[in-house]
Amino acid sequence: MPRVKLLLEFGETKAFEPFDRRGDEQAVQGKSLGQLLDEFAHLRSENLNELRALNLQPQDLDRRGRHPAFGPVTLSACSPPGRLTI
Questions:
Q1: CA-to-CA distance for 14 and 27, rounded, in angstroms?
Q2: Residue 6 is inside which H or E element, if any?
């Protein structure tokens, strides 16, 4: 959601913040699989509610932002393929 919000607010004028792909390693240490799944379900639900609240329209998927390494990207590219549909 941070990248979606940044893209919607700033478009290509502000690049996404770099993402630490290994940043969650410490956050998951010492937690059981059940705890991690519960946390995932809670965060996923919050993110879906936020996404719905944005009231995005199909044309919004073509809005552009700027990835720090890949350059211009569309909103639809901020989601795994087939995941962000309206």
A1: 28
A2: helix 2-10
Query: What separation in angstroms does the CA of 28 have from each of 25, 31, 32, 36, 46?
Result: 6, 6, 8, 7, 19
What per-residue string of b and e applies to 69-82 under the rule 16 or more CB within 10 Å gives b? eeeebebbbbeeee
Q: pLDDT (tens digit, 9 = 90+) per residue, 26-85?
A: 889 999 999 999 999 999 999 999 999 999 999 999 999 999 888 999 998 876 554 555
**What letter would DSSP give residue 16?**
P
The two structure tokens encoding residue 45: 């639900």
Residue linked to tokens 């010492």: 30
Taking the complete model, does pTM exceed 0.90, yes or no?
Answer: no
